[in-house]
Design goal:
The protein is α/β, with parallel strands linked by helices and 539 residues long. The protein folds into two domains: 147 residues, NAD(P)-binding Rossmann-like Domain (Rossmann fold), CATH 3.40.50; 284 residues, Dihydrodipicolinate Reductase, domain 2 (2-Layer Sandwich), CATH 3.30.360.10. Helix content is 33%, strand content 19%. The protein has an eight-stranded mixed sheet, with helices on both faces. The longest helix has 26 residues. It starts with 19 loop residues before the first strand and ends in a 39-residue tail after the last helix. It binds 6-O-phosphono-beta-D-glucopyranose. 6-O-phosphono-beta-D-glucopyranose binds next to loops.
Length: 539
């Protein structure tokens, strides 16, 4: 397989779904042009869309179908993940339609119904329809209610109607419950597809394959062998032009109850009885419910918040968060969070799960690190156990997708010296890199009716339940030290202290080896420069 770069095709995924139409609310927005259209086009190129297919874009902008086709043809040149092939683009473009209207206006939904009839005549889409809410979250309840009232969510004659909701699912526990209630009033839970785009990432899906398709890791995947787990989602970018949204969200809401807790559920869950969506969701939900609620008096100790000041990243000066567009000059919105969570079950009792995420950190890196316990005894002269680097399994989600396992090896030579080395698997070495937006599999699954990679209502509520105590305490006690980390650093000092208190430290998110107990820095090259862990001598 080495060196091959497969396309996303029927061979790599499967057969195209049956005839259907897709209605995108928010067709004039960023998500549509940057992700959804390029992803749908990639599916089209790979012959993974049905022949009988149409997209109806819906937005407030007063375009005609012709305008929409022209604009989309311009946008794809900028946002396609690979070469745009004119034949497949023409096929795709002829299936684009547009409707302008106000999402709260019942008239719009009559027009949608008529348009669904028209595309059925033009493209034989039948009655199946996927409604995608690529809108601001304030419109989620509005659109769901209008769809329901207009009868567009009814599934008559064996036809399916599904609604895709993009995160955020609420902004705290009460709002998530209320959104779920509204959705349940008009839709059956099986019609709802809650997208968390992290689950579209290959390496995230691979966590399950790695754990449950291999016999050797599961026996050590528990409190007997694992010392702790670290999850880092570091971003180099700042808040960019999303200050308006981000001011009300902050790092905790934006990243934790969704992306990071999804990573934690896949890492910590019990083996499901099958890969049926319910079986997987049940196990994920158990993990979420087992997250120990942080007592209010412990929140400031176990949850660290930070906000970036100005600084330098890759030699470039960048402004402070408070100087970004649409951000208040005295904003107390966190752009960094680090937490210590515990999962109260037999597998993970007393194993801390440390997580951190932030904007304007030194590099973009999403990693899960499983740090194993040190060996109980080391039979090398002059070497105490605490001089041995613990084994680490690092699952790199992005940008370098792969898995590596570090272990101690003898450095060649007449004296016994130990050094940490890595066994590395890089996705690109084996499978090439498939150009993708991350939405292809998710959109394909929605059309196929496979909800495994989507979030169930109870999962969303369990996730918010885990973070709600932190939101409450942080609201009651606003930070007094913001900004407390310079852009280009690894966050506030308190995030290091969070682990130091427990005698641990963060693994630097850049490439390299686990931090060494003897304080030496290491070369990724396991050869000559790796410092010894033992004193020279014979065993
Ligand atoms: C989004 C957040 O859900 O995920 C953004 O709203 C964040 O703030 C983004 O930047 C990160 O996604 P990715 O795929 O770039 O890691």
């Amino acid at each position: 397989m080495d060196g091959n770069t497969p396309e996303l095709t029927q061979d790599t995924i499967g057969q195209p779904p049956g005839p259907c139409a897709m209605v995108i609310f928010g067709a004039g927005g960023d998500l549509t042009k940057r992700k959804l259209i390029p992803a749908l086009y990639n599916l089209a190129k790979g012959k993974l869309l049905p022949e009988q297919f149409a997209i109806i874009g819906v937005s407030i902008e007063p375009y005609s179908t012709e305008d929409f086709r022209k604009r989309t043809t311009e946008d794809i040149k900028q946002f396609a993940t690979g070469m745009v092939d004119m034949n497949s683009w023409d096929w795709f473009n002829q299936r684009l339609y547009y409707l302008s209207g106000d999402f709260g206006d019942a008239e719009l939904y009559k027009k949608i119904e008529d348009m669904l009839g028209k595309v059925d005549v033009d493209q034989s889409t039948g009655g199946n329809c996927l409604f995608y809410l690529a809108t601001s979250p304030t419109f989620f309840p509005v659109v769901v209610e209008q769809l329901g009232k207009a009868g567009l969510t009814k599934q008559d004659d064996g036809k399916w109607r599904r609604v895709v909701i993009e995160k955020p699912f609420g902004h705290d526990l009460p709002s998530a419950i209320s959104l779920n209630k509204c959705v349940a009033k008009f839709l059956d839970e099986t019609q709802v597809y809650r997208i968390d785009h992290y689950l579209g990432k290959e390496t995230v899906q691979n966590i399950l394959a790695f754990r449950f398709a291999n016999g050797i890791f599961e026996p050590v995947w528990n409190r007997r062998y694992v010392d702790h787990v670290q999850v880092t989602v570091a971003e180099e970018l700042g808040v960019e032009l999303r200050g308006g949204y981000y001011e009300g969200a902050g790092a905790l809401r934006d990243m934790v109850p969704n992306h990071i807790l999804q990573l934690i559920t896949l890492t910590a869950m019990e083996p499901p009885i099958s890969f049926d969506a319910h079986a997987v969701h049940d196990e994920q939900t158990k993990v979420l419910r087992a997250i120990q609620p942080i007592a209010p008096e412990k929140v400031l100790e176990r949850a660290v918040r930070g906000q970036y000041g100005e600084g330098t990243i890759n030699g470039k000066h960048v402004p402070a968060y408070r100087a970004e567009p649409q951000v208040a000059p005295n904003s107390v919105t966190p752009t960094f969070v680090a937490l210590c969570l515990h999962i109260d079950n037999w597998r993970w009792a007393d194993v801390p799960f440390y997580l951190r995420t932030g904007k304007r950190l030194p590099s973009r890196a999403t990693k899960i690190v499983i740090r194993f316990r040190r060996p109980p005894f080391v039979p090398f002269r002059n070497t105490s156990v605490d001089k041995i680097a613990p084994n680490e399994l690092v699952i790199s989600i992005q940008p370098d997708e792969g898995i590596s396992l570090s272990f101690e090896a003898k450095i060649p030579g007449p004296v016994v010296r130990l050094g940490a080395v890595n066994m590395d698997f890089q996705y690109s070495d084996y499978f090439g890199s498939v150009p993708s937006t991350g939405y292809e599999t998710l959109l394909y699954d929605c059309m196929m009716g496979d909800p495994t990679l989507f979030q169930r209502a109870d999962m969303v509520e369990a996730s918010w339940t885990a973070v709600q105590p932190i939101l409450d305490v942080w609201k009651a006690l606003p930070p007094r030290d913001f900004p407390n980390y310079p852009a280009g650093s690894w966050g506030p000092e308190a995030a290091n202290e969070l682990l130091r208190r427990d005698g641990r430290e963060w693994r630097d998110s850049k490439a390299g080896h686990p931090p060494r107990p003897d304080g030496h820095s290491e070369s990724p090259d396991p050869g000559a420069k790796t410092p010894p862990t033992t004193q020279p001598g014979k065993p």
